[in-house]
């Protein structure tokens, strides 16, 4: 462990408000979900006073941080990435204890988190997010001259980020929301997820150290631990917060949307909430490789104890012997599956309740249950119903957060289409098809594109590539805002707004719009993209 | 008048629901605001039945219209532009009668409307709005292969557009909201503004004829006249509507925001609501050309009877003899101003009430009133107060929709800055400065950029160029969504959402993402923009 890691790699249980360490009289603890044992140390319970302090600092940091040059911001993101990598096994082991997730998964998630910060560093350097656009003056145009118009995108303001339970690194303190908000030039106040406060604090310290080393305003980042929903509501209600990034339950997301819409100044909420991620098993694929599909499905379903936003929770196929064979093979794989520890006792209990409630609904049968649960785990489940039942009972489209899915047998393609049409917005929709299915699929793809942010063929939706073309979003209620993605470079646009400068003297223009183009940006001038100088 | 114009150029008082003409038992009329006389004919009062029918058609039209190729959509926009131009003096004279606006202004507005449709046609053809992005598969990448990922932006769904009172052409039936929504591939249901139903119907018929001539689904466009707020609320509440474009009062915009946020599926509302568009008179500029500034200000203030979203309703300067001289010169120009007819009797009455209420507040004086009102007009007004009074009374920052402004005298630059900081979001902020003022202005520009969507130097905010770099937007309460503009090509992004396609067979990809690139788009492939084939 490097010297910096030694300095930052301690868990003290504080809220980190700018440069300050804040403790509170009230405290809470994390628990090992495999054993139920409480973990040391105790953590501060941030409240309205800490929200107030963090938001005041974020607001004070905003003018300078939003105008930092790309190189400075990129280097900070890279330093944060290095700092997190530098935390070494200590971070991984703390995260294992707090989440029950296995080492390899957490190491992979750390690599993704670090890579994501570096991707946003590259993006910031590219300047593409500025979208610099110049319409030069046309002083002799008739009937009226055109003024000189220059547009750029700028940071929207301080952003509240909510850590997610299921990705203690990649969707938490320095995850995609924080990385994209900082890249945009927005200070960030994180409400840490209470299930992994130690993991959160370690990452927060690394991020804070990177910002401090760059000499940036301490208010650019604060970390507020606390177990209550009231903390989150107070953060979203603070008038200095200008946007919200959230990954979590539908109930939690809807509550924050209500708070945000009810403010004197409403603000955008980017809540990624829930989905069942329909998987369509087309006839040719089922016939040719039903067993292989069943194996792949159960692997995807049970990965990470099914605790993924993109978990395949709904399978749809045409009733018949091929679908029955698929169900049988999937059932065998489910029965052979070994339950993983779930993230928290509460999540496990809610999962078991959701499966039991779904299985008890009229017309639903249990096709298979997994083996008996290990410590903190819950058995996987495959339920089954027919399309008519599914269409008559909206509750059957609800998410069971964990390793459970429902298989819906449609009488024919027309009924299958009705099932899709009845679905709410989704993060993903998947087609399993063979060449012979393409004529059927051609009619389905446009329909699926109206329902989901990502359409897959012959794959499984778990596993979200961090890349420019990725969309991890989708129509409501998968997210609160179908115009956005929370994964991939496009995520930065959630935290930007356009500003136009008309006829400003050169000296008063912001750097990216000045004639000397010191940021060396590609700029759209009079409709034509001009490459950066010297490129 | 061409044959088509003769066919489309009749005002029958119908709602146009797709291809159907719908009349209702209940009717309403327009009034000439200069005389108060009712205008023929009587117009249908669209209600829930018409909303239902129009939205059902829009929903049915969406799948095909959203996937029309760029050339088809561009040609429709151009044909609509030609059809509106073709309506000739009949359109202008009807609009004059319904709005009291003078011929030259309406001819200019028609040119802008037609030019705007053509600009969006060019944009659609360019394909830039697709933002086609391809991350090719990396099958041998370690530790995991990368799938083939392809992203495009697609139409969000049917859009409700609300006509504005003050721009019967450019912000109404075929104005910027409709043009950008159609360009994006969204069917549009327009609620016409009840003050100019005849103008609205003429434009609606021209637009409908253009769509019909292209053989597109009739549900792509419907036009609903009606005087009630309930009509608008029913339209926004319809589950098939996926976004809203609105230009109007803050009360109206906030009401639609509430309806949209309260739906089972909340949707984005782009409401451009109100602003006072602060103008800062810096010391050097005041000293050197105070009288010229006063003349320019009053011209901008009284243009179109002050009925612009960007009307300069708030002036701020440092107290002293130069500011007094400016006030005196502006007062003289105000007193010499001749009132124009305002758009409606209701708008005139509310304007006069707003001025009287503002003038009656403690610490506010009337610096000047315009000459006695002509028919339907109201005298311009310049009020005055000091910054301390302004800061203590938030009501002084309210918009008076019409030719009135308040001049705020600050004791010094620190107080001037406090006045700016106290303001809500604005569409524009203007600096009048000389070379000697640049050091002061350098500190103000970033502050203004946090408050407004457009910053101007040494100009007046009325007059909004339709151009790529334009931003006609701004933080709440100027608009409901600071991430957007309602003028300029960027406006199309309000009606688009991203969709990612993962590992789809070529035949199932939408045209803009296929390897053969038949739309001939510039596409970002593996991070590098590839020019269109053959370019």
UniProtKB/TrEMBL annotation, chains A, B:
Domain Aldehyde dehydrogenase: 25-432
Source organism superkingdom: Bacteria
Keywords attached to this entry: Oxidoreductase
GO molecular function terms listed in the Swiss-Prot or TrEMBL record: oxidoreductase activity, acting on the aldehyde or oxo group of donors, NAD or NADP as acceptor
InterPro entries: Ald_DH/histidinol_DH, Ald_DH_C, Ald_DH_N, Aldehyde_DH_dom, Aldehyde_DH_Superfamily, ALDH_KGSADH
One Pfam family here: Aldedh
UniProt-recorded name of the protein: 2,5-dioxovalerate dehydrogenase
């Amino acid at each position: 462990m490097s010297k910096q890691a030694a300095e930052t790699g301690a868990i003290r249980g504080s809220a980190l408000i700018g440069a300050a360490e804040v403790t509170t009289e009230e405290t809470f603890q994390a628990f090992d979900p495999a054993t139920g044992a409480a973990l040391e140390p105790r953590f501060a319970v941030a409240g309205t006073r800490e929200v107030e302090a963090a938001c005041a600092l974020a607001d004070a940091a905003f003018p300078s941080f939003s105008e930092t040059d790309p190189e400075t911001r990129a280097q900070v993101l890279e330093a944060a990435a290095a700092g997190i990598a530098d935390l070494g096994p200590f971070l991984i082991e703390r995260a294992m204890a707090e989440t029950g997730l296995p080492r390899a998964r957490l190491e992979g998630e750390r690599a993704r988190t670090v890579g994501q910060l570096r991707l946003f560093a590259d993006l910031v350097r590219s300047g593409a997010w500025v979208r610099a656009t110049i319409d030069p003056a046309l002083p002799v145009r008739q009937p009226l001259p055109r003024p000189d118009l220059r547009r750029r995108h700028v940071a929207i303001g301080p952003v509240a980020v909510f850590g997610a339970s299921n990705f203690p690194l990649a969707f938490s303190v320095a995850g995609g929301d924080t990385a994209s908000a900082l890249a945009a030039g927005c200070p960030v106040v994180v409400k840490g997820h209470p299930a992994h406060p130690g993991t959160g604090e370690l990452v927060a310290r690394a991020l804070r150290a990177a910002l401090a080393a760059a000499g940036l305003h301490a208010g650019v980042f604060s970390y507020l631990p606390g177990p209550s929903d009231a903390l989150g509501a107070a953060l979203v209600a603070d008038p200095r917060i200008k946007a919200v990034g959230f990954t979590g339950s539908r109930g939690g997301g809807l509550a924050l949307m209500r708070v945000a819409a009810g403010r004197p100044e409403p603000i955008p909420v980017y809540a990624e909430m829930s989905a069942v991620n329909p998987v369509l098993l087309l006839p040719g694929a089922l016939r040719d490789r039903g067993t292989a599909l069943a194996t792949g499905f159960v692997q995807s379903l049970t990965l990470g104890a099914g605790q993924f936003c993109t978990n395949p929770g709904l399978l749809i196929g045409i009733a018949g012997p091929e679908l029955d064979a698929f169900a049988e093979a999937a059932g065998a794989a489910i029965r052979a599956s070994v339950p993983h520890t779930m993230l928290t006792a509460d999540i496990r209990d809610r999962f078991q309740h959701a499966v039991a409630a779904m299985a008890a609904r009229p017309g639903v049968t249990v096709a298979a249950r997994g083996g008996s649960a290990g410590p903190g785990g819950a058995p996987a489940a495959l339920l089954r119903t027919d399309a008519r039942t599914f269409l008559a009972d909206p509750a059957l489209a609800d998410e069971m957060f964990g390793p459970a899915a429902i298989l819906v047998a449609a009488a024919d393609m027309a009924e299958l289409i009705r099932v899709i049409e009845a679905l709410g917005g989704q993060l993903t929709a998947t087609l399993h098809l063979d060449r012979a299915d393409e004529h059927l699929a051609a009619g389905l793809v446009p329909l699926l594109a109206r329902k989901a942010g990502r359409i897959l063929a012959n794959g499984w939706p778990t596993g979200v590539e961090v890349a420019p073309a990725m969309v991890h979003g989708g129509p409501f209620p998968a997210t609160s805002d179908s115009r956005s993605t929370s994964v991939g470079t496009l995520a930065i646009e959630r935290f930007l707004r356009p500003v136009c400068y008309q006829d400003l003297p050169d000296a008063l223009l912001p750097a990216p719009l000045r004639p000397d183009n010191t940021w060396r940006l590609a700029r759209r001038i009079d409709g034509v993209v001009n490459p950066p100088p010297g490129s």
